[in-house]
Amino acid sequence: MAVKEKIPKNNKVQKKAKRVSIKEKAKPEEKKIRIKLVRSLIGHPRYQREVVRGLGLRKINSVSIRKDTPEIWGMVKKISHLVKVEVIKKNEPQ
Q1: pTM (2 decimals)?
Q2: pLDDT digits (tens, 9 = 90+) for 15-38
Q3: 42-45, long-range: CB < 8 A, 24+ apart
């Protein structure tokens, strides 16, 4: 014998509202940037060395992939003479 579902008396199906943040609704195509250290840190100020480490770079020719945000671009601007930058879209292979 099959079990019947209980139907509420007012015959309205209650749906639970799913909360979705604004960021999830309007999620644009996520861009990333590839940062490559091309010059040596020898002879450069300490703050520039710290910025390079903060971006995740260690040796010459090391590459770091970061999200395309204003904070990252600010760090790149401080050491633009030491790095090369490429913007990659979501679909491109790394």
Answers
A1: 0.66
A2: 566 666 665 555 566 889 999 999
A3: 44/82
